Amino acid sequence: MMTTQTAKTGLNLRNPAFWQDNGTVVVLIAFIILATAVSGGVFIRPDNLITIAYQASIVGVLVLGQSLVVISGGLDLSMVGILILSAVIMGGAGSEQQSMMLLGGLPYIGLWPAIIAGFLTALLFGLLNGLMVTRLHIPAFIATLASTLLLGGIILLTTGGAPIYYPDPFFTHFGNSIWLGLPAPIYLFIAMTLITWWMLNRTRFGRKLYAIGANARASHYSGVAVNNVRLCVYMLSGLAAGVAGFMFLSRTGYIAAASGGDMLMTTIASLVVGGISLSGGFGGIKHAISGVLLLAALSNLMNILLISPYVQNAINGFVILIAVSVYSHIHHDRA
C-alpha cells in the first residue's frame, strides 16, 4: 500500500500513477546500467555494491523514521541531534575511560545499560517533539528546530566540545563484523526496513498514518486519534535516530558535536528524490529506500570518476531540483 487512494496501475507506462509509484525504482535501475557503463564495470562489482549499501545504511535508518513522520504530515529536524546525543551516551557512559573524560560528568554505567540509556534518550526526545506538536500545537518545523538547538546545547555541555574516541570495543567489533559476506550494519538496516514496511502496509497504524497525512481533519471526524498517532510517530522517529546513532558509533568508533554534517539534508533529499510527498499522505518504503540508494549510488559513481566534492554538491542539488519538478508535474497530471 503506497497511499490510501492509489489504485493498482499495472505496467501502463502512460499512466502518471505508474511513474508516481515506481518512477524512482525505474530511474535507479537505469542509473545502475548507466553507471556500470561509464565506470567500465567498476560500479557493478559486488564489493562496490556492498560499499554503497554500507554507506547508505545510517542515512537509510534516518530516512525510515523521517518517512513515517512525513507521511503523517509532519517533519522532524531533530533526528541528527538525537543521533549524536544517543551515541554520546552510549559511547561515553558505556566506557569508563570516556565517562571520566566528559566535562558533563556522565557516570560509567556499563555497556548495555549505556546502550539502553541511549535508546531511551532518543525515545524521550521523540516524545518531547510529539508533545510539542500534538499538545502545544507548535508547528512541527518550529518544534523540532527548537529540539535541535536544545540537543546541541546538551551535547556541548556533556562533552565540553571534545569528541569521543575509542568507545567500548563492542561497537567497532559490531561495525566491522562480516556476516555471510555483508557488514553487520547492513543487516540492521534491512531489519529496520522490513519492520517499517510491515508497520506501514500490514497494520491499522500504517493506514491511519496515510489517512492523517492526506486529511487530518477528516481522519479526526472519522474517529482516528490523530494526536496520539502523531505522538507515536515522533517517538518512532526518535527511536530510529537512536538506532542510527548506535550504527554511527559502531562504524566510525567516534562521535562529536559536529558529527552528522549534512546528514539531515541528505535524509530529506532522499525522501524528495524517492517521491515521498512532503505534504503528507503519499509514499512508502519503496520510495524511501529507492531515494536513499539512488543518492548513495550517485555519490559513489562521482567518487569513482574523481569528481570534485564542490561539483558533487552542485550535481546533487540539480538532481533534487529535477526530482521536485518531475513529481510536481506528475501530481498535476493526476489531479
Automatic annotation (TrEMBL):
The chain crosses the membrane at residues 23-44, 56-89, 109-128, 140-166, 178-200, 231-249, 255-276, 313-330. It is a multi-pass membrane protein. One of its GO terms (cellular component) is plasma membrane. Keywords: Cell inner membrane, Cell membrane, Membrane, Plasmid, Transmembrane, Transmembrane helix, Transport. The keyword Endoplasmic reticulum does not apply. It is found in: Cell inner membrane. This is ABC transporter permease.
